[in-house]
Each structure stands twice: as C-alpha cells, then as structure tokens.
Specification:
This protein is mostly helical. The chain has helices at residues 10-17, 21-26, 43-49, 69-73, 77-81, 97-100, 104-110, 147-152, 167-171, 193-196; strands at 114-115, 164-165, 181-182, 207-208, 211-212, 233-234. Among the domains are: 10-100, no CATH class; 162-234, no CATH class.
C-alpha cells in the first residue's frame, strides 16, 4: 500500500493504493480534501484518531495527499459535496479488504483451516478492533479494555468468575489461541498435549503435579480425555476436571 503520494491523476493513485475496481468506481471523481474537513461532522472520531496507532503511520509533508482519515476511507471529496451519506466513501466495516491493504499477514492467517469467519463476511475487523481507538498494548489494537474483554463480548461462557481459576486465562486468551486463525483446532497455538506442556512440565516429567501421566498422555489431549475439561476455569474442581 502506498500511503503518501505526490500529485498524480486520482485513478492512478487509487490503483497504486490497492483499491478494488468496485471501490474505484464508487469514488470516481472524488478528490482528497484533508482530514481537517472530516472533523466538522466526525469530531469524536478525529479526536480519538490523534492518539491511535494508525495516526503514527501518517507523516505530514508538502505534496502528500493521502493522510489520516483518507488513508483508510479514501478521498472524501464526493462525501463532503453530498453532505455525508453512504456509497461515496470507503467503509472498512463493510469491506475488510481496506484493512488487508496493510495487514497482509492477517489475511493469510484468516485463510488457515480454523479461523474467525472474517473472509466469509460473518464478522469484520472492527468486530474486535477499534481503528480509531487508543492503543496502549503492543500486541493489540483493541483499546484500553484489553484482549480478554474483546473476546468475552462473544465468548461469554469463558468469562467467569470461577471458583477455581486457570491462571493462563489471566495472561490473556492469546496465550493459548491464535485469534485470527490457526492450523490447529479451536485456533490453538499448538496441537494436542503440546499446548498444555508449554506450561505444565517439570524436571521429573512425565510426572505432572504430583502424579505420573505416563499412561495418560498417549490416550488423548489433556482436555478431551475426560480429565481437565474445564480449561478456562471451574466452580467445582481445583484441577479443572469438570
């Protein structure tokens, strides 16, 4: 994606920036007007954007047309002339390809066998991420609420609180899950018992805790063998068995 362009014909600039033919047709004739104009109607969004990670991508300079809001929403000339409305500005909420222009690695992750249904159109990047929001966590753009709170919006049964807590959940869902997509079932970061053994191993392995697991580990995974099925937390058993 080319973020900063010298004055050149709009169609060529939009093609270089990665817009699809459909997007180019919708914005045909539009001109870049600068984000200062956006604040007249979208004051809240513009104010939030100033402290976001995306704002740091913008490098002001003479002759650089594509800045701030228009980096993702495209040229806003038609949108302003019409006094707002839909169909005359790009909306990343409706078209995730806008995000994939920069985040090409995430598009590949969504192509993994087990993934959140973004490419299928059942959700989008803004279902989890706030593109305008303040980012204080190096691993996420999910704003101050943190990673787990974003996941709990949909996965409410994993929230707890539980009488017996699995401490790994406190570290964040991404400790065990690849949130965009994975080659492993349930979008896990590792397969089978290898996932649990990333934390639950000790010098006298295959003893785990105070019991030998030599005969148990080959049978099935820790969470499918009828043992530690309550992996997020339990109200009944301190070993998260149920």
């Amino acid at each position: 994606m080319i973020l900063f362009l010298l004055p050149i014909p709009l169609a060529s600039a939009m093609k270089d920036e990665g817009f699809s033919p459909l997007q180019m047709e919708a914005l045909k004739g539009a001109k870049y007007v600068g984000s200062e104009s956006c604040g007249a109607c979208h004051e809240k969004e513009v104010k939030e954007f100033q402290t976001s990670t995306h704002a740091r991508v913008s490098v002001p300079g003479e002759g650089m047309q594509i800045q701030d809001c228009e980096m993702c929403h495209g040229p806003a000339g038609l949108h302003m002339d019409a006094g707002g409305g839909k169909g005359n500005i790009l909306n990343p909420t409706k078209d995730v390809e806008t995000c994939f222009q920069c985040h090409t690695d995430k598009k590949m992750e969504f192509s993994q066998p087990f993934h959140h249904p973004v490419l299928e159109g059942k959700m989008n990047c803004t279902s989890c991420h706030s593109a305008h929001g303040t980012d204080v966590r190096a691993w996420s753009a999910t704003t101050l609420k943190g990673v787990n709170e974003t996941c709990f919006d949909c996965h409410k049964e994993q929230r707890g609180p539980f009488v017996f807590e699995h401490e790994a959940v406190r570290e964040g869902c991404m400790t065990c899950h690849q949130v965009h997509g994975s080659m492993h079932s349930k979008m896990l970061v590792a397969r089978d018992n290898n996932l649990c053994l990333r934390c639950h191993t000790q010098m006298n392995f295959p003893v785990i805790g105070k019991q030998s697991h030599a005969g148990r580990l080959p049978q099935a995974t820790c969470f499918t063998a009828g043992c530690h099925t309550a992996v997020h937390g339990s109200n009944f058993d301190d070993h998260l068995r149920y």
